[in-house]
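Weekly structure sync, notes
Attendees: PL (lead), two postdocs, one rotation student
Agenda item 3: pending single-chain targets
PL asked that the sequence for the first pending target be pasted directly into the notes so everyone works from the same version. It is reproduced below exactly as submitted, 84 residues in total.
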Amino acid sequence: MFSTLLLPISVVSEASLSYLGVGVPPPTADWGQMISDAQGLYQQAWWYLLFPGMALLVTTLAFNIFGDGVRDAFDPRSDRLFAK
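Predicted structure, written out during the meeting:
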């Protein structure tokens, strides 16, 4: 369950490093590098910036929601499932 918290942190950290230019090498596709490359094009082609950013957001949010669901399912002392 703790790994579902660490995975989004790792994804965002890697995207942040790649955005700054110290991530994976350029032939490899990466969301941070895509966002960095699209910065100069956002007025003409806004979707180059939107779609990698949304993919990063949705992936991070999905792992967090999945981790909450796993914790709720397997934690017997949690009262979040039956809260009124």
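Discussion points:
- DSSP finds three helices and no strands in the chain.
- The longest helix spans residues 47-74.
Action: rotation student to compare against the earlier draft before next sync.
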